[in-house]
Automatic annotation (TrEMBL):
Organism encoding this protein: Abeliophyllum distichum
InterPro entries: AB_hydrolase_1, AB_hydrolase_fold
The protein's name: Alpha/beta-Hydrolases superfamily protein
Family matches, as Pfam families: Abhydrolase_1 (PF00561)
Single Gene Ontology MF annotation: hydrolase activity
Amino acid sequence: MGMAVNLAAPHIFLPTSSSITVRKQYNLMYNSQNFFKISSCSKFKNPIRVINCSKVSTASVSTEKEALLPLKVSEINEKCKKWVWKGYTINYFVYPEINNDTSNPPLLLIHGFGASIAHWRRNIPILAQSYTVYAIDLLGFGASDKPAGFAYSMEVWAELILDFLDEIVRRPAVLVGNSVGSLACVIAAAESTRSLVQGLVLLNCAGGMNNKAIVDDWRIKLLLPLLWFFDFLLKQKGIASYLFDRVRKRDSLRNILSSVYGNKDNVDEDLVEIIKKPAEDEGALDAFVSIVTGPPGPNPVQLIPKITLPVLVLWGDQDPFTPIDGPVGKYFSSLPSQLPNVNLFLLEGVGHCPHDDRPDLVHEKLLPWLANLPAS
């Protein structure tokens, strides 16, 4: 679901209730920017649109739910396909499987930290009414390979995305990402020289693969020695295994998910299983440690100005990992007044994973934006 700040890992596998000590370490490691609240959302001078959940028509929301129910996780799993990339097997999904209408660009959905294709189960049926929708499990997540000893990086995931567009989609597409998946989309769009990307949709974008990314904030820099010490601890196999075993327990996952969702009703058994099942695969622990302790990757502050494509930013204002008043959120909130290609909407009462937390609010802004994209 998606971790400098990131802090972009909504579904980070760490316990929230079983141990005060572990919880403090977790908060330091993955939510360090929350120690330093900078300003209240109401003080922003930039043109941010706020979508208030309570003001959304219940009739339209209920109609959407009745018309198109989420895809079943079992259906997604059964219909997934395999693609071999650099010798690794990558899991992906396309819906509908046959669509001869090429008037609209295809969409490629990229999950965040710890999540997978099924995290988009509430969105795919709506989007597929007008678009061919692809979704992919990044290397190290979901049902994709989790190679032992692999050095994960943001650049690797961005390269995977571009190669997938080139080899499987074969048309310019709109990238839609959540959390660390958003940052991978930003890197792919900034680096693409093949006109593969037609637009970007960023849902609570991460500042880096982990907390060692710095977005010009001296207070975060003060924490770096502690973060490096945490990296050292996680590289001890016994400590990492103990923590990982604790977090992937069903109750721990449910508590973590509840802490990052504004709409607690959507923290259901399907969601818990979506996160839990891949975490039990061989190689999942290695992936977790590599991602948390690896280099944070390219910084969105340097990348976004290079992108001239249309960009839609949707941000849940109740996100504890990348809060709108933290360094990453403040940067993105400043973009509409600086870059004409960027639109941003703040979603009130929504957490780190807007597409699954309040899909109705996301679709309300995403669908008109997609409909108004210039032709490729």
